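Input (structure):
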């Protein structure tokens, strides 16, 4: 299993009136983590889009565990939780600098043709990408919570 880590410096604009990271910003961080994972594997989402494909979110779930605040740094850990014929599920942990889990999440995606929004198999359009996801999809290591 391959895990990508991306450090995030928490900006003031990402916090609410209480100085805590506003919950919707976690979704942005998940995207940053996904993009980093894809790039670490040698692919680009922008390249997929330029070839006429999109990968919309079909489901997302976040469990908030411990608040993050302005001035702290967080690390987004991202991996392929599951990968099938049409759907890919990514897993995430968002960590405090000391390794404490701030949040866990999953997001589910499909690949679609941009002009029709019809689902297509990643295996059909990007066999190398599909094979890499099959190779690295989750086999639960110690320390990763489901």
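Output (sequence):
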């Amino acid at each position: 299993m391959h895990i990508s880590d991306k450090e995030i410096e928490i900006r003031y604009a990402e916090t609410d009136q209480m100085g805590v990271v506003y919950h919707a910003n976690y979704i942005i961080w998940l995207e940053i983590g996904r993009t980093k994972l894809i790039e670490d594997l040698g692919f680009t989402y922008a390249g997929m889009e330029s070839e006429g494909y999109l990968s919309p979110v079909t489901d997302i779930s976040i469990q908030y565990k411990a608040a993050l605040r302005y001035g702290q740094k967080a690390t987004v850990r991202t991996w392929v939780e599951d990968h099938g014929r049409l759907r890919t599920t990514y897993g995430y942990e968002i960590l405090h600098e000391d390794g404490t889990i701030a949040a866990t999440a999953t997001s589910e995606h499909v690949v679609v043709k941009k002009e029709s929004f019809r689902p297509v198999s990643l295996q059909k359009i990007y066999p190398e990408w599909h094979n890499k996801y099959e190779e690295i999809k989750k086999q639960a290591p110690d320390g990763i919570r489901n």
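Notes: The first strand starts at residue 4 and ends at 9. The chain has a mean pLDDT of 94.
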